[in-house]
Design brief:
- By secondary structure, the protein is α/β, with parallel strands linked by helices.
- The chain contains seven helices and six strands, in the order βαβαβααβααβαβ.
- It has one domain: 3-Layer(aba) Sandwich (Rossmann fold).
- The chain has a six-stranded parallel sheet, sandwiched between helices.
- Helix 4 runs parallel beside helix 6.
- The longest helix is centred in the middle third of the chain and has 19 residues.
- The model has no long low-confidence stretch (mean pLDDT 92).
Length: 175
């Protein structure tokens, strides 16, 4: 990547934060850059982007680090903490490896909100970011200190969504 990489945050209660990060990833890949994405709180083989990731290899590496089901329903368990910490370490390794131009931490804000990752650990990662790497953090509930430290913060706001009427998430559209 030529130039200085920024830190971007996509947050808010609207749909499209992961999609925005993936749009950035596809543009980067199209320009010959390499992208590494950690998906916190998402189990392997549960989202559409995971199924197409191999088609973009080796320019795109996607690592889901979560279990099936929603934490809000089952509560946080020790395995959730271990998986989130492991994902943060994988992200740090990728960020500092010199191999990737863009590193995306998908749903990291939610992992912080649930207490699976300390905000200070994310802030340390942000501070460690090499100058030429773009770092993207997604998820609702972005911590105020993360917002403050970022170069760009986009809030995705829901106006209305079929989910509010009881429509379940649709395969290929919401996941």
């Amino acid at each position: 990547m030529s130039g200085i990489g920024n830190i971007q945050v996509y947050t808010g209660d609207g749909k499209g934060k992961t999609s925005a990060a993936l749009g950035l990833a596809w543009r980067a890949i199209g320009q010959g850059l390499k992208v590494f994405m950690v998906q916190f709180l998402k189990a392997p083989e549960t989202s559409g982007e995971q199924f197409v990731a191999e088609a973009f290899a080796p320019s795109f590496v996607l690592k889901p680090v979560g279990r099936k089901g929603f934490i809000r329903r089952r509560g946080c368990e020790p395995l959730d903490y271990l998986m989130a910490q492991g994902g943060l370490e994988e992200a740090r390794d990728a960020l500092l490896s010199g191999e990737y131009d863009v590193v995306i931490l998908d749903e990291v804000n939610v992992a912080v909100h649930f207490g699976l990752i300390e905000p200070e650990a994310v802030l340390e990662l942000m501070d460690a970011k090499p100058e030429n790497v773009e770092l993207v953090l997604t998820g609702r509930y972005a911590h105020p200190a993360i917002i403050e430290r970022a170069d760009s913060v986009i809030e995705v706001k829901k106006i209305k969504h079929p989910f509010d009427l009881g429509v379940k998430a649709r395969e290929g559209i919401e996941y």
